[in-house]
Automatic annotation (TrEMBL):
Lineage per the UniProt record: Archaea, Nitrososphaerota, Nitrososphaeria, Nitrososphaerales, Nitrososphaeraceae
Source organism of the structure: Candidatus Nitrosocosmicus franklandianus
Record-level GO BP terms: protein N-linked glycosylation
Protein name from the UniProt record: Glycosyl transferase family 1 domain-containing protein
GO MF term set: GDP-Man:Man(3)GlcNAc(2)-PP-Dol alpha-1,2-mannosyltransferase activity
Residue stretches making up the Glycosyl transferase family domain: 254-402
InterPro entries according to UniProt: ALG11, Glyco_trans_1
Domain of life: Archaea
Cited SUPFAM superfamilies: UDP-Glycosyltransferase/glycogen phosphorylase (SSF53756)
Record GO cellular component, one term: membrane
Length: 462
């Protein structure tokens, strides 16, 4: 059995990238050969730094990496027909258009975190077209040539020496190239590809919030399986003991003046609305609430300007002594930040699920999150805010009025909620879905029937 994973770029090292590695691991544990179709060569050292060597090691198990210049009809056709895949798994179904007439709900799983692409394409969002779809590469495309296969060489000879990279870049230089017309044609193709992919795949998403959005945007009532993404709660729980945060040196009222206090975890990019966390810190300072705010997340070169804007905003609001940005932190560094924090703040309204929120809850942090988004389905309502002023009041209440015993009790409550989203639970459910799909494929080949609707019914009944 062979599965082809589709993910444009694993290197940002955010929640979606971790989700993909865990899903790869789940299939590899089933004895299924895995390949990857992507637009960028995975940076193994960066993945190890962000997720730890154990999880990142699944990259070494990939039999072949197909690097495309773009997701387009010709490249996808070539990708599919070079290898006879039993299953296509697009774990970036909110961003990556990957469809071919041979794909359907029996041989393609699409995990769509949110109908982001449809909204971005309607606005011809330049960041999406440039950063994610690599539309700038259009000007280098001519008639496609046969892909050049090269071998990855790792420093460690025990790593997958047989792993191959399929390079599908086209030759540069095209005469009389009409970029604007080509861009228009490509965007139209992407829209059609997304529509076909959403309507013809075994579709999964992360929350009821995202499910409703997908159905609304695509005008369909097609079955969508809600399967919460995996979070490494077990490792975090093993490394962080809640009671140790509250030693005898603390008074009955929790004193945060020497603690970091509040933690934000998210990629450093505009869509995450990190400036909201900085404005919250300003409000808290004006309220004379003594606390520190740490913002930790991976930073891609594409978003350097946004990063510098955040630094300028911190300086402008005179918050350099209380707000600190941490970029590209390792997993161990993140654990240390969690140990020093008591509250987690999520700055973005409309989060699709919120893996970083669950991570923080597993560490015993109390999450303060917007009322709108997938996180509202598992974060207690008393910790949900409608405005930054509202959020500041919740934080103030926690930092000034909650006793040590009450804080420990709430921390344990948050950890118990987070346990529902363990990596083990996710892998078990995903493996069951794949097993039944492969069984259906076999039935379809032998007897001419399949029953994917029964798979959805099985999980929706839980």
């Amino acid at each position: 059995m062979r599965a082809n994973f589709v993910y444009s770029n694993l290197n940002p090292c955010g929640g979606g990238e971790r989700f993909t590695l865990v899903t790869m691991k789940a299939l590899h544990e089933m004895g299924i050969d895995i390949e990857l179709t992507t637009l960028e060569q995975p940076n193994l050292s960066k993945l190890e730094n962000a997720f730890g060597k154990d999880l990142a090691s699944v990259v070494k198990k990939i039999r072949r990496i197909n690097i495309l210049d773009m997701f387009d009809e010709q490249s996808i056709h070539r990708n599919l027909h070079q290898t006879n895949y039993d299953l296509i798994i697009n774990t970036h179904g909110d961003i990556d258009p990957y469809f071919h007439s041979s794909l359907n709900a029996n041989n393609m799983i699409v995990y769509c975190h949110y109908p982001s692409a449809k909204l971005l394409l309607e606005n011809e969002d330049n960041e999406y077209l440039t950063y994610h779809l690599k539309i700038g590469r259009l000007q280098y495309r001519i008639e496609p040539r046969i892909g050049v296969t090269t071998q990855i060489v790792y420093k460690n000879p025990t790593q997958m020496a047989s792993q191959m990279v399929e390079s599908m870049f086209t030759d540069p230089g095209k005469h009389n190239f009409d970029y604007e017309n080509s861009k228009k044609e490509y965007v139209n193709w992407v829209k059609k590809a997304f529509d076909s992919m959403i309507r013809n795949s075994f579709l999964m998403t992360n929350s009821n919030y995202s499910k409703a959005a997908i159905q609304k945007e695509y005008g369909t009532n097609n079955d969508i399986l809600v399967l919460s993404p995996p979070v490494d709660v077990d490792t975090i729980i093993s490394k962080i003991k809640i009671e140790q945060r509250f030693d005898s040196s603390l008074s009955s009222q929790v004193n945060y003046s020497d603690e970091n206090g509040i933690l934000v975890i998210c990629r450093i990019e505009p869509s995450k609305r990190i400036e909201n966390a900085i404005y919250l810190a300003k409000i808290l300072k004006e309220r004379k609430i003594k606390t520190k705010l740490n913002i930790a997340g991976s930073l891609e070169p594409f978003y350097q300007d946004y990063y510098h804007d955040l630094l300028q905003l911190i300086s402008k609001l005179d918050l350099s002594d209380t707000v600190k940005l941490h970029t590209d932190v390792s997993f161990e560094e993140l654990i240390e930040l969690m140990k020093k924090s008591k509250i987690f703040f999520h700055p973005r309204e409309g989060e699709h699920f919120g893996m970083s929120i669950v991570e923080a809850m597993s560490a015993g942090l109390i999450p303060i999150v917007p009322t709108v988004g997938g996180q509202s389905e598992f974060v207690p309502v008393e910790y949900q805010y409608k405005s930054l002023e509202d959020a500041s009041q919740i934080v103030s209440q926690l930092l000034t009025n909650m006793s040590k015993e009450e804080m420990i009790k709430e921390s344990i409550k948050m950890r118990d909620i987070a346990k529902n989203f363990s990596e083990t639970n996710y892998k078990r459910q995903f493996q069951l879905i794949v097993s039944r799909m492969l069984y259906n494929l076999e039935c379809d080949h032998q007897y001419g029937f399949s029953s994917n609707s029964k798979i959805r019914n099985l999980f929706s009944a839980k």
